[in-house]
Design brief:
single chain; 4-stranded antiparallel β-sheet; 16 helices; binds NADPH dihydro-nicotinamide-adenine-dinucleotide phosphate; alpha+beta; about 425 residues; Alpha-Beta Plaits
């Protein structure tokens, strides 16, 4: 049977239709609707002058909390989707991940004052007295989120440095929540200004989500074996790499980049805000004032245990999700029916991506797989079309993986195809 990665894009779509994951309509949209409607594109951002296409792929068979998922990913880097599949395959041999997200999807917004004429303690006391007024103001600023079961949950006051900071914990239900939180924060800030007797310095959400999603996995070491290295040795080296990342920031940042390869691609596919997720992830990695790996690995009794902790500021409604037809199809393929499901899948994908990268690093090396896939990119850059791409890639397996080799091979393919004249 032809493997999914060996099929043509059209055959892959047909396969997903047969599996009941896509409808004919979805497949047609994916095939033909590669460009956004002009009105959508022009209204989504400012100064729009064109569109920028990227491939949409799918990582298959990631088991999360006992259910199997296909994860749409949008990415320009070769090997990211292949690595996700590889990690998912190894996880599946071990029953998949267990993942948990905060039961209540909240974001924090902060209203900060840098001047308070009545003094620090009096101002804090005064703000505390107005607790109920702040609750009412927040409800009036965004009544629809209350009707949906969300809204302002908690008010706390903090004093970082010389500032007074009012922190609002807002339940944003199924949305990512930046606009909802900012609307509420600005309204509350205006109200507080009259009690503080000065202008607020800022009123905006923080991109650090209050609680992380946690994904864990336990792997039998024999499932990690490569052609030449036993699984136990691979596992020991993965543990060593994980330990290195906790004491070497240069390794930690690349370790985390590998995790974000998967998460950012899957976040982009649904039209969510990748910058918010990246900023939150790296801030969380440095939460103890030292930059740490988001995922860590250790071994007991011949079992490799992986754990990833990451805050994930994403939504399944709002933002650009509705305006992007492909994002809606991605959401459907991923079966992201709740924010928590989506967060659990993202964290599990990040852990799978991390495992695949570490295993490649300690096994055959990262470049072997990378450069095999990079050859396709080089063939395209050299100007290969149609079947020239596969032929160039095939011949490049035994040459240097650089542009000059790709150009040389392409020239030879074309020369061999030219019918000699007599
Ligand atoms: P929206 O402003 O689109 O708000 C989500 C909307 O979805 C709600 O207002 C609500 O509309 C509607 N909705 C429908 N069903 C639900 C539901 N079940 N739960 C919650 N809302 C529902 O988006 P967000 O507030 O999520 O903000 C996300 C956008 O903000 C992203 O595009 C992001 O890039 C951007 N942004 C990010 C910032 C940052 O990260 N620092 C800063 C500023 C913006 P209704 O009013 O009908 O209830």
């Amino acid at each position: 049977m032809t493997k999914f990665y060996e099929m043509t894009p059209c055959e892959r779509r047909q396969c997903l239709i047969r599996e009941g994951i896509l409808t004919e309509n979805d497949a047609n949209t994916l095939e033909s609707d590669i460009a956004l409607d002009d009105t959508v594109a022009n209204n989504l951002i400012e100064n729009q002058i064109g569109q920028f296409a990227l491939p949409l792929g799918v990582a298959r068979g990631l088991i999360v909390n006992g259910k199997k998922y296909d994860i749409p990913m949008v990415v320009e880097e070769p090997s990211v989707v292949a690595a996700a599949n590889n990690g998912a395959r190894i996880f599946a041999l071990n029953g998949g991940t267990t993942a948990q997200s905060p039961a209540q999807h909240t974001v924090l917004a902060e209203i900060v004052f840098d001047t308070f004429p009545d003094g620090l303690n009096n101002t804090i006391h005064c703000l505390q007295q107005h607790h109920d007024d702040i609750i009412t103001c927040a409800a009036q600023a965004k009544p629809s989120i209350l009707q949906r079961g969300g809204g302002l949950r908690k008010i706390t006051i903090d004093t970082p440095g010389r500032f007074i900071k009012i922190v609002l914990t807002i339940d944003v239900q199924a949305a990512m929540g930046a606009n909802i939180a900012n609307t509420i924060a600005e309204a509350v800030a205006h109200l507080c200004e009259q009690w503080v007797h000065s202008d607020a310095l800022t009123a905006i959400l923080t991109n650090l989500a209050p609680e992380p999603t946690i994904a864990t996995v336990t792997l039998k070491t024999e499932t990690l074996a490569t052609k030449n290295i036993p699984g136990e040795r691979i596992a020991q080296k993965i543990v060593a790499l994980s330990e290195l990342a906790t004491c070497d920031i240069d390794r930690a940042v690349t370790h985390n980049k590998g995790i974000m390869n998967g998460i950012t691609s899957a976040v982009l596919a649904t039209g969510n805000d990748t910058r918010a997720v990246e900023a939150g992830a790296h801030c969380y990695a440095a939460r103890n004032h030292q930059y740490y790996p988001l995922a860590q690995w250790d071994m007991t009794n011949n079992l490799l245990h992986g754990r990833l902790e990451i805050p994930l500021q994403v939504g399944i409604v709002g933002g650009a999700i509705r305006s992007l037809p492909t994002a809606r199809i991605a959401q459907k393929i991923g079966r992201y029916h709740s924010v928590q499901t989506y967060q659990n899948i993202l964290a599990s994908l990040g852990l799978a991506q991390n495992l695949a990268a570490l295993r490649a690093l300690v096994g055959p090396g990262i470049q072997k797989g990378h450069m095999a896939l990079q050859a396709r990119n080089l063939a395209l850059t050299a100007g290969a079309h149609g079947d020239e791409i596969a032929l160039t890639v095939q011949k490049m397996q035994s040459t240097a993986k650089d542009l000059a080799s790709a150009q040389q091979i392409l020239q030879e393919i074309r020369a061999a195809r030219t019918i000699p004249t007599v």
